[in-house]
Design goal:
Length: 448
């Protein structure tokens, strides 16, 4: 069976894709939703002067505002209906997962299966609306204080009416984007939330590349540095692919048992443990938490409180405070998210239930402890890998004004989401080919 599956996977091609009608519909639906998302990133909030906003944002784009603009696909810099992108939903998901770990009520809901998961998702949506409202109103208030170099305000008619309409527009855009992400997950291909962030980054890559080449043409960036950046990006992508595919395979043995005159069992299999179980979630979560309390600091224009100005300076790329908090949050979410998605005790109980055991390890509690030991070491290596990939290019970005889109975080998201989506497409194609083989075997059986 394994060899047949490998052969089918090796034969996957575009001709097979053309025959998989359902998969084509899913891919087209996903592309259609992403096109709708990209159109929304160009629909501005009413009452905004785009020229003044662009002038102000250029001076604030070097820190967290630039990173948030990268995640939003340029929507924040244009101050559109998707200015907050999907970040409030991600923040709400973080809070709900933390609450699930400490609240017995939510933990009970989580164990109830599909019904409990639906309730938790509903609570996450409510929290998303609350966070988007707070952030949207704060963003509207911050916009009123923005002025261009000539003293012209970014808001044509500031006041409570503008704040109300801007907040409703931003919240509506965030909720619509959350719904689009859920539709992709349910009716399309891949994880909807990750694909939305992926689409925003990829859509802005050509503009970032042109901007970098323009800097090299004007002499702001040396040509050897540009070549080095391209080589670094290729090396980082190759390293990410290698690490994302790396796994520790634990041998699992099943004992022989006799049923009548026949002998069953005695087989062995492998329990694969990925080096990076948490995937791309830790950098996204870490970025979201860093952006949450400081969304408006960059828009004070230097007129805010002294502590806000100082904090804004410390949250620039390459600053020690930013690097320290970013690394700490990535490592924390690596362990936290891995603990959520993989439970050693449950895995050990399932192995014991079906008679499986790891050679040299007693079933039950000892197996759970061994799995936890191996998983902890793997997660430690995975956390260091994510931290290195996300932080090393940041120094170059801070020192050489290289666009965020060539940083480790953006490359990690693009590569990881691409690999996950391609894997899901291959799974659909494999299932489709198996269905075709089953139908052919049934037809031959009827003819026979």
């Amino acid at each position: 069976m394994a060899s047949a599956a490998e052969q089918l996977a090796a034969n996957l091609n575009f001709s097979a894709l053309g025959k998989a009608t359902e998969l084509k519909k899913r891919i087209l639906f996903t592309l259609g939703v992403l096109i709708v998302y990209r159109i929304g990133t160009y629909v501005p909030i009413p009452g905004i002067d785009p020229n003044v906003l662009e002038d102000v944002f250029q001076s604030q784009a070097g820190g967290l505002m630039g990173m948030l603009n990268m995640f939003s696909g340029g929507a924040l810099g244009r101050m559109t209906i998707f200015a907050l992108n999907i970040m409030p939903y991600i923040s709400a998901s973080i809070i709900m997962q933390l609450m699930t770990a400490v609240s017995p009520t939510l933990d009970t809901l989580k164990k109830e299966g599909e019904s409990g998961r639906k309730k938790i998702n509903q609570y996450t949506r409510y929290l998303t609306v609350l966070l988007a409202t707070v952030q949207g109103y704060g963003l509207a208030v911050g916009l009123e204080s923005l002025q261009g170099s000539d003293g012209v305000s970014a808001v044509s008619d500031p006041g409570m009416f503008f704040r109300l309409t801007a907040t409703i527009t931003i919240v509506g855009g965030t909720i619509f984007l959350m719904w689009l992400g859920e539709q992709i997950t349910a009716r399309g291909v891949g994880n909807g939330i990750s694909l939305i962030i992926f689409a925003g980054i990829v859509a802005e890559l050509p503009r970032a590349l042109v901007g970098m080449l323009e800097l090299s043409r004007t002499g702001a960036l040396a040509i050897p540095l540009v070549i080095g950046i391209i080589i670094m990006a290729i090396v980082v992508v190759a390293f990410i692919v290698f690490m994302e595919r790396a796994q520790r395979r634990l041998l699992v043995q099943y004992p022989k048992r006799q049923v009548g005159n026949r002998m069953f069992g005695g087989e062995s299999s492998h329990l694969p443990l990925k080096l990076n179980t948490a995937g791309v979630i830790p950098p996204i979560f870490a970025s979201s938490l860093l952006l949450l309390p400081t969304t408006l600091i960059g828009f004070s224009g230097g007129d805010g409180p002294g502590w806000a100005t100082m904090l804004a300076g410390q949250f620039q790329h390459g600053e020690p405070l930013f690097m320290l908090l970013y690394a700490a949050l990535i490592i924390f979410f690596c362990f936290f998210y891995t603990a959520i998605v993989f439970n050693p005790a449950d895995t050990a109980d399932n192995l014991k239930k079906y008679g499986g055991f790891i050679p040299g390890i007693r079933p039950g509690k000892n197996t759970a402890e061994y799995l936890d030991y191996v998983l902890t070491r793997l997660t430690a290596v995975g956390a260091l890998y994510l931290t290195a990939v996300c932080l090393m290019p940041e120094f170059l970005i801070a020192r050489s004004a290289i666009p965020f889109y060539f940083g480790g975080t953006s490359l990690l998201i693009v590569v990881s989401v691409t690999m996950d989506t391609v894997s899901q497409i291959q799974s659909h194609l494999l299932a489709h080919q198996y269905e075709g083989l089953i139908k052919k075997s049934r037809l031959r059986g009827r003819r026979g």
